[in-house]
Specification:
This protein is of the alpha/beta class. The chain folds into 3 domains: 130 residues, TATA-Binding Protein (2-Layer Sandwich), CATH 3.30.310; 159 residues, Rossmann fold (3-Layer(aba) Sandwich); 39 residues, no CATH class. Helices cover 30% and strands 25% of the residues. A 7-stranded mixed β-sheet has the order 7-6-9-10-11-8-12. A 5-stranded antiparallel β-sheet has the order 1-5-4-3-2, with helices on both faces. Strands 13-14 form a two-stranded antiparallel sheet. The relative contact order is 0.10. The C terminus is likely disordered.
Length: 360
């Protein structure tokens, strides 16, 4: 029993690799599969049914239940969201975890057993084919547990590459070329995009995500901004070299240190974009904000560190008229933001109300 207790970590969670070593006196090889899937009883039952448990005499040796904590519970919502399957005939463990709308399948096996390895790969492929979503563009969102930083993938099914020459003023095309060229290079740097709400800053970032699918884009939520100061965040970045960090509504991040009473994140950005770490990590940081560039810390806009900066403005009257006409609206020559244009409602030739949609 004391040895078996070593299969649990310091947080009281079962660690299947330790359990494998305890059971088989060997180090496990592993195949891991992660799929976005709703945390429901019928889903976990479908996953278990898709695993051919008879081939290697797999038996459930551990379950972890989730129960509905209300006075009048619905028993159908109670289900074991974690299962550990152990083979009675081979060195094989299968760990199944369906929590937080994410399915994790971890298979642990003996590297010398090529037959089991082939079964593991075939099983993971079958599960992926049956339960995984269609391939689409993704970006990552920074998250944190008690132990470390990690990322969650976010699908971008409604994102698409936009026509920059149609949706933005003419002076932005040169800036777009500079930014796109930088995305193809392994170099650190800072991109500052500012302007009033609705002028297309977020829409442009979506465009970059779709256009450069090989890049890793990590969205930093506002509640994690101060975490950029923590040493463990640098450890996280060491595993994500050449990534692009996105910080929206970044006023508090890039404001001059003279006007900030809080611990400034500016120094961290300086290190990442033009410090000792920059040549190794090659991290790019995109900051969007609504205030003027004059409030940005002067050190951030120095030559060599800044890849590009641009102020998004409402479309010129000429651009507005062309875009309205291309969308089937009445061409009006007046200054408008992209948000205002795409929120317009009008009657089409059939007399039906229409509304165009896009993200900004």
């Amino acid at each position: 029993m004391p040895k078996l207790l070593k299969a649990y970590d310091s947080y009281g969670d079962l660690e299947p690799p330790y359990f494998f070593t305890f059971c088989y006196d060997a180090f496990p090889s592993s195949v891991k599969l992660n799929i976005r899937l709703r945390s429901q009883r019928e889903k976990i039952e479908a996953v278990l049914a898709a695993v051919d448990m008879d081939v290697y005499a797999l038996n459930t040796v551990y379950k972890n239940w989730r129960t509905d904590g209300v006075k009048n519970p619905d028993p159908s919502k109670d289900f074991p969201f974690q299962h550990l399957l152990k083979s009675d005939s081979h060195k094989l463990l299968v760990w199944i975890d369906l929590s937080d709308n994410s399915l994790s399948i971890d298979c642990y096996y003996d590297l010398a057993d090529t037959e089991v390895e082939a079964w593991v790969l075939a099983t993971c492929h079958r599960l992926r084919t049956e339960f995984a979503e269609e391939r689409t563009h993704t970006f990552k969102v920074l998250a944190r547990s008690d132990r470390q930083f990690y990322t969650e993938d976010v699908n971008t099914g409604d994102f698409s590459v936009v026509a920059v020459d149609e949706l933005y003023n003419d002076d932005f095309q040169e800036i777009d070329s500079i930014i796109c060229e930088s995305m193809g290079k392994s170099e650190a740097g800072l991109i500052l995009l500012h302007g009033e709400p609705g002028t297309g800053k977020t829409s442009y970032i979506k465009n970059l995500i779709c256009k450069f699918q090989e890049k890793v884009f990590i969205f930093i939520q506002n509640e994690f901004v101060q975490d950029l100061l923590k040493p463990e965040f640098i450890s996280f970045l060491l595993k994500h070299r050449d990534a692009v960090l996105i910080i929206e509504d970044a006023e508090k991040v890039i404001i001059s240190r003279e006007h900030s009473s809080e611990g400034s994140v500016v120094s961290t950005i300086l290190q990442l974009t033009d410090g000792l770490f920059s040549d190794y990590l090659n991290i790019k940081i995109i900051c969007t904000f609504n205030t003027g560039i004059d409030k940005v810390d002067k050190a951030l806009v120095r030559k060599g560190r800044l890849i590009a900066k641009y102020e998004f403005k409402p479309l010129t009257a000429e651009k507005t008229a062309k875009l309205l006409q291309s969308l089937g609206y009445e061409a009006k020559e007046k200054v408008m933001t992209l948000a205002d244009i795409f929120k317009l409602k009008h009657k089409d030739f059939n007399g039906e109300e229409k509304k165009a949609k896009i993200g900004f």
